[in-house]
Amino acid sequence: MTRVKQSWLTRDVVGLALNRFLSDFGHEAGTAVLPLFLTLLGAPPFALGLIEAVSDGLSSAFKLVGGWIGDRLKDRRGFAAVAYAVTGVTTGMYGLASTWLGVLAARAVGWAGRGFRSPLHDSLLADAVPSEAHGRAFGLDEAADTLGAIGGPAVALLLVTAFATDESALSVFQLVFLLGMVPGILAAASIMFFVRERPNRTVSARSFGAALSALPLRFRRYLIGIAIFGAGDFSHTLLILYAVTVLSPNLGAEAANSLAILLYTVHNLFYAVGAYPFGWLADRIGKRTMLIAAYCLAVLMNLLLVGTPSAVLLVALIFVLGGVVYAAQQALERAIAADLVDESVRSTGFGALAAVNGIGDFISSLVVGALWTAFSPSVAFGYSLLMTALGTAAIGYALRKAR
Description:
The protein is mainly α. The chain is 84% helix and 0% strand.
């Protein structure tokens, strides 16, 4: 045990954590004001759902391809760095859009890069630590990611609170997008300067189909559970729109906008604070137990949303639950995948996991946005409640069989 404590926190782990911090700082600053920016452009709730759905769909495809390519590359860092740079640059391009279709185009390109880089990053991290420290390593990685996701919206909130008025709001949102581009480019540099490729790793020569076929049955069962849950696991940017919708009648639009960004920052704070403790605890009491507990909290969050509460404390509780769920989910899903998949197809496995999650995000964001626009938030989140409950049961069965 002493050896693991001394060896898992390496320069590579720290470099990859820095990479995640910078990238999320940039694009989460833009994401925090994106729903408000779209509202100024006259976009309906369906537009935000469609933007997230299309972007997540493209991201899913590129995650799968990126995972397969990652197993065939001798050095994965260069490809990952280019993809990080693409996401950073497209964040700045949101501000150039005059309609929501322009935002859709920029977001789609950026999320394609985000998808491609994801399995490369994860496989580099999994190769850098022993298996008994995967929970801690991925927990730290998520914590760094979310510290960036706190810092980005915090800066956005500061700028919006200090400078945004009815007349200047559009210019302030555009400034946030431009500033968000800088840390995205620095993230690309960090992965090149601080992360080392493992020199003795085996490079796969499998075709795309052969690589997918080589994924073990236990992992495929796991992906089915992830897919069912993901079909109801909508993008939490919709919570910003929800908060503005339910709080505006009592607080006014301007105060509701600022509070929604603040609550999203709180969401990301709990995400950051929880990621490493969840990973640390999972290494000791079991990753399966911790992941199922997190999924149960997602069910509770959706149950609250179905009631569409407008009290500030209940809305804040929803954001807190969302942050805690993300903390466990993002760290433990990848840590469990690293344990279930052999090294020779590890990058492909991470790509498959990320693709399944992305497809789930596509379905959930599109369906929730459409149901919200056509009916009501209660109907939209009722769908999410059903799918997350079914997914929780499915993942419990899949991991029981994997043991």
